[in-house]
Design goal:
single chain, about 425 residues, alpha/beta, Rossmann fold, Serine Threonine Protein Phosphatase 5, Tetratricopeptide repeat, DNA Cyclobutane Dipyrimidine Photolyase, subunit A, domain 3, 3 domains, 19 helices, 5 strands
Length: about 425
């Protein structure tokens, strides 16, 4: 007779330390089988050399190497999660499945399907909070409704954070409970339909020096003043609890960036329509021009606006773009070119190493003026003014647009004054 086991399902929590669901699984009294599932629903739209898939695959190998030292092994599967679990219960006597919650619309639907199936087989599905400090409605108005403006949300978030002791879950102390599954050859990138990407994910920096100086350096694109934490938070290789505690000890500006992340997560959770519609429905009446030739020039960094072009070329070559420049290029696409924010959002989703649905959607809708707590529609960034303020010595621009200042560099594809007036008129008409 097979011995009952518990399963821990890795998703957006690719670490063995301070992992809430893993900790509870390891302390459940049963041996624990760790698994990861490459879901075709998530992979199907990605390019063959997607840097994030390469990154995830490398992270899984690192986890596996650590587990092998403990005599266990990560079971990596490919397929729809529901189908994978249907197969697993034929192979193992599974008593419970442990996992950390995911708040994106597809993930919620996927987990509900898996949970319903497992419970029909009398298998318990345990979910835990791990990728945020406060989830769902834990930070809400007095009447229980969600905040749709960042400032009051952040005040209550900080108040609760100071009042609440943030737990740790030392899962790393109990890895001897993990077991190994004899399942044949391991999957490689080729099996998944992918190839190794030439783009590498840079290491992150959460040093005392960076956090203390974050408010001074975060807006300067030529300086390494940002943490590059995005991909690591996205895939959970760092603990949000450890990070928030560290940030709180030094500089509140850095902590507020983490609060912005949670603000957009709860917006997506409470208002899932934002995935493909404006947060404010009236803004879906905007008559976008959606000129495909101009969109292509924006994508390639050939708009004739050096700050915009530098940002897009940095994105295309590295999978990263400085946060200040992201605002400039997003505003330019929506306001100067009158191209639907969803086009830009989709392009960023394909290219960004740190792509996270809630933040990407929230920031694009902010730039377009269509989102909650968004920049007012009549606020139109002047890319030239942004360059003068944040890259006065042209260091960032010269790095990414070396031909700037020569006859090879294109003329602006649209005049700023004309584009600004046109955008304001178009938005006004939509909202009247």
């Amino acid at each position: 007779m097979k011995k009952p086991i518990h399963v821990f399902w890795f998703r957006r929590d690719l670490r063995l330390n301070d992992n809430a669901a893993l900790y509870h699984a390891l302390n459940s009294g049963k041996p624990v089988l760790p698994i990861f599932i490459f879901d075709p629903e998530i992979l199907k739209e990605l390019p063959e050399k997607d840097a994030r898939v390469t990154f995830i695959y490398a992270l899984l190998n690192q986890i596996n190497q650590k587990q092998e030292k403990q005599g266990s092994q990560l079971l990596i599967k490919q397929g729809k999660p529901l189908s994978v679990f249907k197969d697993l219960i034929q192979e193992f006597e599974i008593a419970a499945v442990y996992t950390n919650r995911d708040y994106e619309p597809y993930a919620i639907q996927r987990d509900q399907e898996v949970k319903n199936f497992l419970e029909s087989k009398h298998i318990i599905f345990h979910e835990f909070k791990d990728q945020v400090i406060f989830e769902k409605s834990e930070v809400s108005k007095q009447d229980g409704s969600p905040y749709t403006v960042y400032t009051p949300y952040s005040k209550i978030w900080l108040q609760k954070f100071k009042e609440k002791k943030i737990e740790s879950f030392p899962s790393e102390d109990h890895l001897d409970k993990l077991i190994k599954a004899e399942t044949g050859p391991k999957l490689n990138l080729k099996d998944l339909g992918f190839k190794q990407s030439e783009i590498t994910v840079p290491g992150f920096d959460i040093s005392k020096n960076l956090i203390e100086n974050y408010s001074k350096t975060r807006d300067v694109p030529s300086t390494e003043g940002t943490s590059h934490l995005g991909p690591y938070l996205r895939f959970g290789t760092v603990s949000i609890r450890e990070l928030a505690r560290k940030a709180a000890n030094f500089e509140e500006t850095f902590l507020k960036e983490l609060i912005w992340r949670e603000f957009f997560m709860q917006i997506l959770y409470h208002f899932p329509h934002v995935v493909d519609q404006s947060f404010k429905p009236a803004y879906d009446k905007i008559e976008w021009l959606n000129d495909e030739t101009q969109f292509k020039k924006w994508c390639e960094g050939k708009t004739g606006y050096p700050m915009v072009d530098a940002g897009m070329r940095q994105l295309n070559q590295t999978g990263y773009m400085h946060n200040r420049v992201r605002m400039v290029v997003a505003s330019f696409l929506c306001k100067h070119l009158l191209i639907d924010w969803r086009w830009g959002e989709a392009y960023f989703a394909e290219k960004l190493l740190d792509f996270e649905l809630s933040s990407n959607n929230g920031n694009w809708q902010w730039a377009a003026g269509t989102g909650c707590d968004a920049a007012p529609y009549f606020r139109v960034f002047n890319p030239a003014s942004q360059q003068e303020k944040f890259d006065p010595d042209w260091i960032y621009i010269k790095k990414w647009v070396p031909e700037f200042g020569t006859h090879q560099y294109p003329e602006p594809i649209v005049d700023h004054k004309f584009a600004r007036e046109r955008a304001i008129k178009t938005y006004k008409q939509a909202l009247s």
